[in-house]
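Re-run with default settings, no changes from the original entry. Doing this only to confirm the output is reproducible before filing.
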Amino acid sequence: MDTLARHYFDAAGLGTPIGGLSRIGEALDAIAANPHEAKMSDRMIGILYQQGLGRPPTASANTVADHLRLARKYGITAADLVAGDGPTIRLDWDSARVVTQVAS
């Protein structure tokens, strides 16, 4: 049962660090290395920002899915945009606590 719970914890992204514009900058630097992905980055940021504000996307469902898949690949979420540039936080499975990490 613990393995199943851990699987869904990970699948839901609950252990993914969030918050901080520095994470967005790092992801955009990595995305820039791939010309196809670099072309998608502006729209990806727009979709994430609208998602963070709770607004529905204006793009098609397939376009949104493609851009969110790119964001997941680089470990960024809407929370990274709307959180400002504070410390990153994540849920820690082993300690069952919120872990705060100040960006370096």
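The chain has a mean pLDDT of 84. The chain has one domain: 2-101.
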